From TrEMBL:
Pfam families: PNPOx_N (PF01243). One of its GO terms (molecular function) is oxidoreductase activity, acting on the CH-CH group of donors. This is Pyridoxamine 5'-phosphate oxidase. Residues 23-149 form the Pyridoxamine 5'-phosphate oxidase N-terminal domain.
């Protein structure tokens, strides 16, 4: 993996965000946004819950949802997570190709991971094709192995200053896997 600080968009003296901090942000994210491309080329963005497991971001979708339809035509995606705060924030963008997960042992582990992460709010049962959720037995599961990860960090240089005008340092890191 190649990690580098993009000095064009980073303040002097800042350091690249490490891979461990980046994956921790993905593991702890409560909400993410998935960007797909419609058949006519227009972008489509939707919020969703995701799980980081085995070096990939995983998400689920119903077979009639727009993101599923988009993925059948074009599997290239960007999954984004972060905070919409001015300071003390880390935004992560994962670029990659979404591939369908149908391996039953992996689906079992993913269902358990979803259950743990959201305290039972997202209770999935693994099937031979994906997940079952309540009376929906056609939930498709996708994995995105990162091809490129962009990380944008913002941190107030003096935490005791609370004004929006106080100095905030910016970092822009890229990880290529």
């Amino acid at each position: 993996m190649e990690t580098r600080l993009d000095e064009r968009f980073s303040d002097p003296g800042t350091e690249a965000t490490g891979w461990a901090e980046t994956t921790r942000a993905l593991e702890e994210a409560q909400i993410s946004w998935l960007t797909t491309v419609r058949a006519d080329g227009r972008p489509h963005v939707t919020p969703l819950v995701a799980v980081w497991l085995d070096g990939a971001v995983h998400f689920s979708t119903g077979a009639t949802e727009q993101k599923y339809l988009n993925l059948t035509a074009n599997p290239n995606v960007v999954l984004t997570t972060g905070r919409n705060a001015w300071d003390d924030a880390l935004d992560v963008m994962v670029e990659g190709v979404a591939r369908r997960v149908t391996d039953r042992p992996t689906l079992d582990r993913l269902a358990a991971a979803w259950l743990r992460k959201w305290d039972g709010s997202w209770a999935y049962e693994a099937t031979d094709n994906g997940f079952r959720a309540g009376d929906h037995d056609d939930v498709a599961v996708f994995a995105v192995e990162p091809a490129k990860v962009l990380v944008f960090g913002r941190q107030r240089t003096n935490p005791s200053e609370t004004s929006m005008l106080s100095t905030v340092e910016f970092t822009h890191t890229s990880h290529r896997l």
